[in-house]
Write a structure and sequence with these properties.
Number of helices: 22
Helix content: 25-40%
CATH class of one domain: Alpha Beta
Strand order of the largest sheet: 6-7-8-3-9-10
Radius of gyration: 25 Å
CATH topology of one domain: Rossmann fold
Structural class: alpha/beta
CATH architecture of one domain: 3-Layer(aba) Sandwich
Length: about 550
């Protein structure tokens, strides 16, 4: 017997703009979800997957969007339903988990009341009954201390806990269809695994249908029954998880699968969509030696950076009559980084890895310990000496958009630090150098006159890299510098970083919570937990034979695919 279809999308096209002048972003797509089925939609930013989900929810603005086709939910065409009917369906029969819980939750209302409001609105629960049901929901989504969290504001809980509050809110009315739009993108790999397991558990228990949207095929393989692959507003491939992963037909799907760094083999270069169309590129070319052995000569020299017994402590304001609580963000950390090496620094949010990076850059003042760069003690330098040192030790930020001035064109943003550090004889020489740098990171001359908002995430990150190499640094700290990027764009940026390392002799400290990415990049691996070094050594050796339970847990949490 054929399962009943809960949702049918037929020949859906979506355009933005006015009736006279509009741009179509989703082109004549069709797919369906059966009752008690999980459908995964995969694609990069701009592929149309989130716009499609918002159109199902009826959340696209009427004045600036036009929809053609049919969205049939329980035989009702949602495109033709009025706003009142859509409000009664939204939250009750179709619910959504958004990508960013901090912006989806109201910061001025405690978490418990935000979930209770859904129950009171759609199910007419009394305040006391709604609170009781909310506490049960918090237990169901495995939130610790449900009563405490009921009275907590969103900013007082972790990202993983906020996402669980969003899930509790979404399943409160037992919807027939749950849409999860990139629900784990900003989360650590271990929290991500917990959320995926939780969603599967809830779906199995309630028999609801689930539309799971992601740019990560590995993640989708762990939860979905069927997969739809979207590219530039079109569906390029669809089928069962087994078909898509083992026998992909479309080049774009093959590129997405190949772009993810492997834990089994270490490639010299990650395949990208562009490289897969190049007949000379060999996607199966494997590094014959551990990267640390390949660069073994770098370990015969004195270290470029030496960190010894470094501590960074914060003090919480506990009140007038109570003692301040000491938070040890970095606790007696020691390691060495050699010239030409990439040190991978991994751990979950809150482990101290970013604080350690900021301490090395002298953006945070350490509590005690030593940081020596080329034998010089950084913690003893004056502010003037630190400013001079900025040229040699550079940072590539996690969020390229917030690190660029939105009012400054890209060319000026690159020239500004060159002026500060006296690089280039004059304005003409600096401009010529900027043009060279843009070309070096894969951007043409036209980007000189563009503003940050006119660039994609990957393009902005390339500008951030260009700004860094303009300083001709020796040591570059990459703080989660690819975590916000799509898989294929991430592959391009990682390849670029490795090319620049070879060409300019850079030394990297590569900070990330993504172990697969760090394995591709790192010679040496440093695993942090609660401010301490949990494990340190050759990256390939640690992945092959982790000795600590925490490291094993991090590796086990990485989505493996089929």
């Amino acid at each position: 017997m054929t399962p009943k279809k809960i949702l049918e999308v037929k020949n859906l096209s979506i355009a933005f703009g006015t009736r006279k002048k509009s741009t179509e972003v989703v082109h004549d797509i069709s797919f369906s979800i059966s009752k008690n089925e999980i459908l995964g939609i995969v694609g990069e930013s701009g592929s149309g997957k989130s716009v499609t989900s918002l159109s199902i929810m009826g959340l696209l603005p009427d004045k600036t969007s036009q929809k053609k086709g049919e969205i049939l939910f329980d035989s009702k065409n949602l495109i033709k339903e009025n706003s009142k009917n859509l409000r009664s369906i939204r939250g009750k029969e179709i619910a959504m988990i958004f990508q960013e819980p901090m912006s989806a939750l109201n910061p001025s209302i405690i978490c418990g009341l935000q979930v209770s409001e859904i129950l009171r609105l759609h199910l007419n629960y009394s305040p006391s009954k709604a609170k009781k049901e909310t506490l049960l929901l918090f237990e169901k989504v495995k939130l610790p201390r449900p009563r405490d969290l009921y009275n907590s504001y969103p900013h007082q809980i972790s990202g993983g806990q906020m996402q669980r509050v969003m899930i509790a809110m979404a399943i409160a009315c037992k919807p027939k269809l749950l849409i999860a739009d990139e629900p784990t993108t900003a989360l650590d790999v271990t929290v991500q695994k917990e959320i995926i397991f939780l969603l599967k558990e809830i779906q199995k228990e309630t028999k609801m249908s689930l539309l799971f949207i992601s740019h990560d095929l590995g993640l989708v393989s762990e939860i979905a029954d069927k997969v739809v692959v979207m590219y530039q507003g079109n569906i390029v491939e669809e089928g069962s998880v087994n078909q898509i992963f083992k026998f992909p037909k479309n080049d774009y799907t093959k590129a997405l699968l190949a772009s993810r760094p492997s834990l089994e083999v270490r490639l010299e270069k990650l395949p990208t969509i562009a490289s897969l169309s190049d007949k000379s590129f060999n996607a199966n070319e494997v590094t014959p030696l551990h990267r640390a052995l390949k660069h073994k000569n770098i370990y015969t020299k004195a270290p470029l950076l030496e960190v010894l017994n470094l501590k960074k402590e914060y003090y919480s304001n506990a009140g007038l009559f109570r003692k301040k609580k000491v938070i040890k963000a970095v606790d007696e950390v020691s390691f060495k980084v050699f010239e030409g090496e990439t040190l991978g620094l991994v751990g979950e949010s809150g482990c101290g890895k970013s604080t350690l990076g900021k301490s090395i850059l002298q953006l945070e003042e350490s509590t005690s310990g030593s940081i020596k760069y080329k034998g010089k003690e950084l913690t003893k330098l004056s502010s003037t000496e630190v400013r001079k040192l900025r040229k040699e030790i550079q940072l590539i930020f996690q969020d390229p958009y917030s690190s660029l001035n939105p009012r400054m064109i890209i060319g000026e943003a690159l020239i500004e630090p060159m002026k500060v550090h006296g690089i280039g004889k004059n304005q003409r020489a600096r401009k010529n150098k900027v043009m060279e740098l843009l070309n070096r990171v894969g951007l043409d001359d036209s980007y000189y006159h563009r503003y940050p908002h006119e660039l994609s995430g990957g393009q902005r990150q390339r500008v951030g890299i260009a700004r860094t190499i303009a300083m001709e640094p020796k040591l570059v700290v990459c703080d989660e510098s690819v975590s916000a990027l799509d898989i294929s764009v991430q592959a391009q940026v990682l390849n670029l970083l490795n090319e620049l390392k070879e060409d300019f002799g850079f030394t990297y400290i590569f900070i990330s919570h993504d172990l697969a990415v760090v394995k591709f990049m790192a010679d040496q691996l440093l695993v942090m937990m609660e401010g301490k070094i949990e494990e340190i050594g050759d990256a390939d050796e640690i992945y092959a034979n982790p000795t600590k339970e925490y490291t094993k847990r991090l590796i086990a949490a990485i989505p493996k695919g089929i």
